[in-house]
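We were asked to recover a plausible sequence for a given structure. The inputs and outputs are reproduced exactly as logged, with field labels preserved.

PROBLEM: sequence recovery
POSITIONS: 95
GIVEN STRUCTURE:
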């Protein structure tokens, strides 16, 4: 069992409400927001343009900046331990 969660180094949101989350140890996971879009603060993400534009790393994890001013106390962030527990995926590359 890991005593720590590797740092998140990049997040890439997609129009289908998924986000590729890249960890410093090379693991990549896909977080699917679609099942949560009817819950609480996640409803703010239903606007796909807002979802895409405000997705970033805040508080050392995947987050959405709810106010647009990069205030780490006013964001929707996802537990990095949960993200790391998701099944890893292979990075697809163009051929």
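RECOVERED SEQUENCE:
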């Amino acid at each position: 069992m890991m005593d720590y969660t590797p740092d998140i180094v990049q997040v890439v949101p997609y129009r289908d409400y998924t986000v590729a989350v890249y960890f410093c140890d090379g693991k990549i996971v896909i977080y699917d927001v679609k099942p949560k879009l009817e819950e609480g603060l996640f409803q703010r993400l239903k606007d796909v343009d807002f979802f895409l534009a405000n997705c970033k790393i805040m508080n050392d994890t995947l987050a959405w900046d709810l106010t647009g001013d990069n205030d780490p106390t006013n964001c929707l962030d996802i537990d990095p331990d949960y993200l790391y527990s998701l099944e890893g995926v292979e990075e697809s590359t163009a051929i």
